[in-house]
Specification:
Pathway: Cell wall biogenesis; peptidoglycan biosynthesis. By secondary structure, the protein is an alpha/beta fold. The protein is built from 15 helices and 16 strands. The protein has 3 domains: 93 residues, Rossmann fold (3-Layer(aba) Sandwich); 190 residues, 3-Layer(aba) Sandwich (UDP-N-acetylmuramoyl-L-alanine:D-glutamate ligase), CATH 3.40.1190; 135 residues, Protein-Tyrosine Phosphatase, Chain A.
Length: 436
């Protein structure tokens, strides 16, 4: 845990008592803050009470008495409308921040020279965060990894001069971190996402830019127009910028977990970041070769049927699915779920790679119309299990090469699953059950 000693003696309201919210309360209490924690869920409040954490009904609180309101990242700050705690805090002139901001203030207070890598982007940020952390560990560094991936940032060990924090940041978290100032800030790419939370693409991009605006070194992708414009602005503001691209040459032949052009972008960003932290190229490439990859992100599931099974459940939007489709030539594609704006029209150039599509979830009928309009064979199967069975039969029958069954849904998971992880586990279970 990182005790928030920089908040000692301050009165802090905390709203949102999921995993990161509870971690925030523990950190603030350990640092000596006077905390009132609350949630709209009675069960969440009861869980905090059972742990002995300080709770109170913020609906009845006088917000002017607080120094800060700390929001969990999932709580609406601006769109579709501000949460009631936000309105109360703004009316009282109380700052509204999140756990990333608390970490940044604590780092400046106790170890201002500690290395801190913050990573964002619409796609690839989890893989790149894990890759950077892995390479640094393999090179002998003391690494703490977390944030939007795995462990809440305040559950990590505190900053120190011999330790590097590698932290994935979502746009929700950045929006609550006004003084975010990493040693190395990474902005991989931008495409339309989370507009229900940020209103417009321009606002979404502006929020992402905050992560790199105050960084010592900004590593920025140049594979989309928003990122290119961002890099230009940063340079004009005097920020040290290293631009990277998926087109930059890099040898990933020994890194099986980094297949695909999109992973070339991730790898080049990781290389630039590790160079900025003092690693040699040979140290970085050695780390790439031993990187195991992340579950549900272009993850290969080993089987003995001669088919390559790829679990890409993390592909919750079209841009992610495009990267997956671009990585293979002969694809039996399982897709669908809760659709996002625009459907799969943007993937039409990749349809010639698709042998057959297997549709699940709410998007099935709409996606079937798009596929049929471009002469792609399809079948509506409804569930992951049925889709896996059908794809297996077709792929095994087509063993005139190395067929790939690609589970890259291009959709959110919330129609049938709690999250993409649960969806990916359902796919993995179904694939492994084929051999039983």
């Amino acid at each position: 845990m990182t005790p928030a000693t920089s908040f000692k003696g301050r009165r802090v309201a905390v709203f949102g008592l999921g995993g990161s919210g509870l971690a925030t309360v523990r950190s603030l209490v350990a640092g000596g803050a006077e905390v009132t924690a609350f949630d709209d869920s009675e069960a969440s409040v009861a869980k905090a009470k059972a742990e002995g954490l300080p709770t109170g009904d913020l609906r009845e609180a006088k917000f002017a008495a607080f120094d800060s309101l700390v929001l969990a990242p999932g709580v609406p700050l601006t769109h579709p409308k501000p949460h009631w705690t936000v309105e109360k805090a703004k009316a009282a002139g109380v700052e509204i921040i999140g756990d990333i901001e608390i970490f940044c203030r604590e780092r400046r207070a106790i170890a201002p020279g500690a290395d801190f890598v913050a990573i964002t982007g619409t796609n690839g940020k989890s893989t790149t965060t894990a890759l950077v952390a892995h390479v640094l560990r393999e090179a002998g560094r003391d690494v703490q990894m977390g944030g939007n991936i795995g462990v809440a940032i305040l559950d990590l060990e505190p900053p120190s001069g011999t330790r590097v924090h590698v932290v994935e940041c979502s746009s929700y978290q950045i929006d609550l971190a006004p003084t975010l100032d990493p040693t190395v800030g990474m902005m991989l790419n931008l495409s339309e996402d989370h507009l229900e939370r940020h209103g417009t693409m321009e606002n979404y991009a502006a929020i992402k830019e905050r992560l790199v605006a105050r960084s010592g070194t900004a590593v920025v992708g140049r594979d989309d127009e928003f990122s290119v414009a961002m890099a230009a602005r940063l340079k004009s503001d005097g920020v040290k910028v290293v631009e990277i691209s998926e087109a930059d040459p890099i040898d990933l032949s020994a890194a099986r977990a980094l297949r695909g052009a999109h992973n070339a972008q991730n790898a080049n960003a990781a290389l630039a970041t590790c160079r900025a932290l003092g690693l040699t190229d040979s140290e970085v490439l050695k780390g790439f070769a031993s990187f195991p990859g992340l579950a549900h992100r272009m993850e290969e599931i080993p089987t003995k049927d001669g088919v390559v099974w790829i679990n890409d459940s993390k592909a919750t939007n079209v841009d992610s699915a495009e990267k997956a489709l671009a990585s293979f030539e002969k694809v039996f594609w399982i897709l669908g779920g809760k659709p996002k704006t625009g459907g799969i029209e943007a993937l039409v150039p990749f349809f010639p790679r698709v042998e057959r599509a297997y549709l699940i979830g709410e998007a099935a009928e709409a996606f079937a119309k798009t596929l049929a309009g471009h002469d792609v064979p399809w079948a509506i199967l409804g569930t992951v299990e049925r889709a896996v069975e059908a794809a297996a039969a077709d792929a095994v029958a087509a063993l005139d090469g190395t067929p790939v069954v690609l589970f890259s849904p291009a959709c959110a998971s919330f129609d049938q699953f709690r999250n993409f992880e649960e969806r990916g586990e359902a796919f993995r279970k179904a694939v492994l059950a084929l051999g039983s």
